[in-house]
Amino acid sequence: MSTVVAQSLHVFGLRSHVSNNVFFFDEQIIIFPSGNHCVKYNVDQKWQKFIPGSDKSQGMLALAISPNRRYLAVSETVQDKPVITIYELSAIPCRKRKILNNFDFPVQKFICMAFSPDSKYLLTQTSPPESNLVYWLWEKQKVMAIVRIDTQNNAVFQVSFNPQDNTQICITGNGMFKLLRFAEGTLKQTNFQRGEPQNYLAHTWVSDDKIIAGTDTGRLFLFESGDQRWETSIVVKEPTSETKNLGVIQESESLIEFPAVTSPVPSYEQVMMTSSHSQLSLPQVFAIAAYSKGFACSAGPGRVLLFEKMEDKEFYRESREIRIPVDPQSNDPSQSDKQDVLCMCFSPSEETLIASTSKNQLYSITMSLTEISKGEPAHFEYLMYPLHSASITGLDTCIRKPLIATCSVDRSVRIWNYESNSLELFKEYQEEAYTISLHPSGHYIVVGFADKLRIMNLLIDDIRSFKEYSVRGCKECSFSNGGHLFAAVNGNVIHISTTSLENISNLKGHTGKIRSVAWNTDDSKLISCGTDGAVYEWSLSTGKRETECVLKSCSYNCVTISPDGKIIFAVGSDQTLKEIADSSVIREMSAFDVTYTAVVISHSGRMMFVGTSVGTIRAMKYPLPLQKEFNEYQAHAGPVTKMSLTFDDQFLLSVAEDGCLFTWKVFDKDGRGIKREREVGFAEEVLVTKTDMEEKAQVMLELKTRVEELKMENEYQLRLKDMNYSEKIKELTDKFLQEMESLKTKNQVLKTEKEKQDVLHRERMDDLLDKQSRELQDLECCNNQKLLLEYEKYQELQLKSQRMQEEYEKQLRDNDETKSQALEELTEFYEAKLQEKTTLLEEAQEDVRQQLREFEETKKQIEEDEDREIQDIKTKYEKKLRDEKESNLRLKGETGIMRKKFSSLQKEIEERTNDIELLKGEQVKLQGVIKSLEKDIMGLKREIQERDETIQDKEKRIYDLKKKNQELEKFKFVLDYKIKELKKQIEPRENEIKVMKEQIQEMEAELERFHKQNTQLELNITELWQKLRATDQEMRRERQKEWDLEALVKRFKTDLHNCAAYIQEPRQLKEKVRALFEKYVQRADMVEIAGLNSDLQQEYARQREHLERNLATLKKKVVKESELHRTDYVRIMQENVSLIKEINELRRELKFTRSQVYDLEAALKLTKKIRPEVSETVSSEDLPSVPPTMRLNVQEETGRIIEMQRLEIQRLRDQIQEQEQVPGFHPLAGMQLPSLSGEADLKAQTK
């Protein structure tokens, strides 16, 4: 074995055409087939563990997991023979438990399988033309029953067990739906098919006797005990803006040819081929999965429907729709959801649904999300990342980043990260991609498409082309190790170009298509190989061939060169690995009946890896061994197309025609080829275009402004809410204060009642204590008398006991005497019997002696007879001995002949002994293996016991959980009802929201009006400012006038003072005054003053008349209101007087009833009566004769009446006070209501 080891780390890919290709191991781990492995993938932690396929396997056909999740059954084809391998999943790592490969019946392949509910039995279905259904007891590799399902070569798509019954089986296929039961070693059909035969593609059990089956025409059937109970057709919805119409599947499917080995016969492709063109437009039900509420089924391309069970009926209705989302990275996004769902599976908790599609994709959805989205269909999400759906044709890695670049026939280019095991970039194109090369920096790729060769930038979120070459159908390209050059193959010509897009040279010389190119370490040479059997070494400095090796009988697939550049390694169709140096093959290593398709050597030159046409990878050390020394690993389910090693020799990458990408951890056990330490870590920089940065900056600014607007809106709404809540809080505080006051009053009332009850209770306690003391005295007297009587009885009984004792002593003496007499009689009787038995014993002994004598005589006779017989036999055997001696002489002659034969046979024996020794060595090894297996068996038995115990515990726990589940279902029913109620409540809330939105719109309109008003007000302010300036100017003018007038007044005063000097001379004074009048008074002023005085008098008179009229009307109103209030007040006073009279009468009745109760109590002698004097108003003769049973609770009744009257009077008083507070209302003087505060007032009123 080789010391070079490869360990599988991660796989990017899925084989969707394996039957039952995805299922849950537990809540976080799923199992699916990829390459030639089954992968255990943890959805949360993102790790993978591998279950490798069988050696020399040609591909998996079907999977099945046991209901207890302990076993996995894998159907494979190994060297054209069917094999079923059963793995134990609970073991770490998973190991093979049983292999079923010896069959007593004809079989080509097993296309579907199923485990029984208890995991002890396995059901397998073979492919046509045999179509046998086999019922296995797989632990013992025993066939329990076998039956041929179909004789017309119709395809069988699915087999299954009843989830509660090991003996009931369901089979569906083209034109068949059969229920079988296992009984008495045979499988017998229990149902009869009625109606038209359908092409049933899938089915599932929804209960113990009910099965849902789907057809290729989009119809669903419910069968109960084999009889059809319900049928529905899946409706193809019209296309909308979000959901596209279900078109013809062949339009969306790319022209991909999957390898024939990887897909079982009936699963998908046969259905698509046999379906007519008219049926292709109908949704085909390829998968059905049941869960607690109902079931999920595929309904055509990219569509899954959820059906739930109706509450009142046993039927199902469509509840939700789930779609595969449109992929924005696809060249035609409308076609990305046109892929059929082939398999579905629910998690154990039914929280997650996983689906696999015909394009090798895995999708998942959380079931809680489907309940949230109402009306619109929910959408799946990728479980991991988008995977290749066809053969991968190109592979490359770089130095500065942990990236892998792949391209595929599915027209996509993908960039993977082998450190984080994730997909970095992905893009689909219109043309198929044949080859890809990744620049050592990890920033650029060269991709060869069917129409052109493109150089592309790897941006942060996109793959963008920046240069195209008109090289059609480039099947091979490669960047140099330094990254400054790249080689591109066009048919039989190699174009060498620089990264500055300048063509250096064209290398011509191959006569056939070039299949592979490789650069040496210093990029000075290029090695190429092709289908013409030529391997050329080119010098880039001259552009000519340096060495060549041509072998026309071999078509080369791949070539590589050693790190020192001296040896070329090439693999091809002649099933050998060639070492070429100096234009000649120096060594050939056989591939042992397989064809090598790819070869790669480590940068240390110590490890070599080759890929084969059967999908395996071989690891070997270099220099190459002479014998068959390599490690072979199961990897892919198709021929390996490309292989590559990372720059640090830690990881091996491989791709194949099955569309899977494997990453391997490689190392050398001898320590050679130790990984090179990285001087610099992986680069983290990425390429971003300037326009993208500007767009993102613009988007960020827009988002920031939007965030600020939203903040303002939220703050405004919060203020509104705060105002609303503050008002509500005020209302609530007022309510609570009122309630607190009412409760305080109630508390006071209750306290008073409690005090009254305490007084009554104390009085009752005193009465009870008195009664108890009396009863105690009476009991003591009675008990003393009883004790005296009992003492007298005791003395009498004591005398009786003495007499009885004397009598019993006499009886005992008599009994003793009778007993002694009976004993003597019994001893005599038994002694006589004993003598009889001794005589009988002596007689028996004599009989025994006689029998011994007879035995000895018979013994002697028998011995004599035996001696005679021995003599007779002796004579017979002596005769036979003579005959044997004669025959012995004859045989001696024959032995001489036989010795010659013996000598010839001895040689053969020696050869056989050598074989035996070899077999013994193998036996010793096998015995060691058997011992180890026995130890394993013992350990497994212990594990089985422990598991049985744990199973019992878990069954108990399951029972408890079922109970809890029932309770939770009840709780769920209640919650559903509450949800319905809440939904009903949501509608008015939504109406309120609409109203509020309308209010907001109105408020926005008001805001606009306010803005307009503000602008108008600003205009008004400017006008007012102008007016203010004008008024200032007028004010200045007025002040000037005022100053002028003051000067005039001063002059007038001086002139008047001068006139006063002529006070004694009238004539001069008159002249002076006239001169003053003429000087200071003008005629116009006089006219104006007179006019002003008349206007003022008229206005004053008019306002005075108006005010007098108003005063007169107000006086009339006051008089009317006072009259109205006076009449109301008189009416209320009259009512009060009548009520006072009624109260006085009730008080009289109360006094009368009290006296009557007092008389009745005296009559019954309950209390000593001291009769008061009868008042003059009520005589004893006038009292009505009331029987004693008229009123038993008179006091309580009168108390209630008085309390009611008191409340009524208080209410009237409050009403009067309110009316007194009314202006213009004057109560009558001298009227005052009597107080009802207590008992003293009652007595005073009655007096």
UniProtKB/TrEMBL annotation:
<dbReference type="GO" id="GO:0120316">
    <property type="term" value="P:sperm flagellum assembly"/>
</dbReference>
<dbReference type="InterPro" id="IPR015943">
    <property type="entry name" value="WD40/YVTN_repeat-like_dom_sf"/>
</dbReference>
<keyword id="KW-0175">Coiled coil</keyword>
<dbReference type="GO" id="GO:0036126">
    <property type="term" value="C:sperm flagellum"/>
</dbReference>
<dbReference type="GO" id="GO:0070286">
    <property type="term" value="P:axonemal dynein complex assembly"/>
</dbReference>
<keyword id="KW-0206">Cytoskeleton</keyword>
<dbReference type="InterPro" id="IPR011047">
    <property type="entry name" value="Quinoprotein_ADH-like_sf"/>
</dbReference>
<feature type="coiled-coil region">
    <location>
        <begin position="794"/>
        <end position="1020"/>
    </location>
</feature>
<dbReference type="InterPro" id="IPR001680">
    <property type="entry name" value="WD40_rpt"/>
</dbReference>
<keyword id="KW-0966">Cell projection</keyword>
<feature type="repeat" description="WD">
    <location>
        <begin position="507"/>
        <end position="548"/>
    </location>
</feature>
<protein>
    <recommendedName>
        <fullName>Cilia- and flagella-associated protein 57</fullName>
    </recommendedName>
</protein>
<feature type="region of interest" description="Disordered">
    <location>
        <begin position="1226"/>
        <end position="1247"/>
    </location>
</feature>
<keyword id="KW-0853">WD repeat</keyword>
<keyword id="KW-0963">Cytoplasm</keyword>
<dbReference type="Pfam" id="PF23414">
    <property type="entry name" value="Beta-prop_EML_2"/>
</dbReference>
<dbReference type="InterPro" id="IPR055442">
    <property type="entry name" value="Beta-prop_EML-like_2nd"/>
</dbReference>
<feature type="coiled-coil region">
    <location>
        <begin position="693"/>
        <end position="753"/>
    </location>
</feature>
<keyword id="KW-0677">Repeat</keyword>
<dbReference type="GO" id="GO:0007338">
    <property type="term" value="P:single fertilization"/>
</dbReference>
<dbReference type="GO" id="GO:0005930">
    <property type="term" value="C:axoneme"/>
</dbReference>
<comment type="similarity">
    <text>Belongs to the CFAP57 family.</text>
</comment>
<comment type="function">
    <text>Associates with components of the nexin-dynein regulatory complex (N-DRC), a key regulator of ciliary/flagellar motility, and might act as an inner dynein arm (IDA) hub or linkage.</text>
</comment>
<feature type="repeat" description="WD">
    <location>
        <begin position="633"/>
        <end position="666"/>
    </location>
</feature>
<comment type="subunit">
    <text>May form homodimers. Associates with components of the nexin-dynein regulatory complex (N-DRC) and the CFAP184:CFAP263 complex.</text>
</comment>
<dbReference type="InterPro" id="IPR052993">
    <property type="entry name" value="CFA-57"/>
</dbReference>
<feature type="repeat" description="WD">
    <location>
        <begin position="385"/>
        <end position="426"/>
    </location>
</feature>
<feature type="coiled-coil region">
    <location>
        <begin position="1097"/>
        <end position="1163"/>
    </location>
</feature>
<dbReference type="InterPro" id="IPR036322">
    <property type="entry name" value="WD40_repeat_dom_sf"/>
</dbReference>
<feature type="domain" description="EML-like second beta-propeller">
    <location>
        <begin position="393"/>
        <end position="666"/>
    </location>
</feature>
